[in-house]
Amino acid sequence: MPRRKIETDSPQTVCGRIRAFREARGLEQKALAARLGVSANAVSNWECGRSRPDLNLLPALCGALGTTPGELLGMEAPAGTLSPAEQRLLEDCRALNEGHREAVRRLVGSLLEAQAAPEGQDARRTEDLRPIRKLIYFERPLAAGVGDPTEFDDAGTPVWVYTSPETERAGCIFSVNGESMEPAFKSGDRVLVSRIPDAPALQYGEIGAFIAGNETYIKVYEKDGLHSLNPAFPTLTFDESTSVFLIGRVMGRLDPRHIVPAAEAERRLALQE
Description:
Layout: H1 14-24, H2 29-36, H3 40-48, H4 58-65, H5 69-72, H6 84-95, H7 98-116, E1 132-138, E2 157-162, H8 165-169, E3 172-175, E4 190-195, E5 207-212, E6 215-222, E7 225-227, E8 244-253, H9 262-272
Parallel strand pairs: 1-3
Antiparallel strand pairs: 1-2, 3-4, 4-8, 5-6, 5-8, 6-7
């Protein structure tokens, strides 16, 4: 009698996919078996192709492996549906705070732009016809001793930028000083800020620009104080003698490529006159 052919553990086979998904989740065979209420030998037999999981175990097996029956069995998903890997990526992104989401958005945006731009093409040439708008850049914002502490000692410097969803919602620009907001914002970055009262009230977990005493900060607003994204920096807390004022909501980093060159801005303004 010929011997029964044993399947290989290639990822192209069901047994190979079980092993690949298990290892990707960091599960030992014993751990997976415990979750499913079967023996470790049963899992080993599945992965070696000696047997197949009972169909009644399929939902629990897929849940433990973080996949779907279609993906585990090698069936193509309907167009427009998220794969388990895509779903996990989406869930991970949703679990990030707003500052870390901004870091992800910046990275994804840079990758998409690099992927879409023809080789050797200067991306700035494609922006020449985009609308532009003026924002105010405050280099040295200071808290006033009297009156509205979010009013600054000068009118700021006008900066023309290409219109985007972020710049449309912003009213001014501030510089980041220091490393406390890395990785989302590095020292020297310029950030877009929607001034209060134009911006909605800041919620816990969102990033704002603040004045406390004679210092300005870009921090994550939380119930217990102002937090940094860099874990090396402590939470800022203030006693009742220190007044803390919200300048506005930080909308994100201003991409230097979105700043309109001075000559281009002058040309645009001349055409509007």
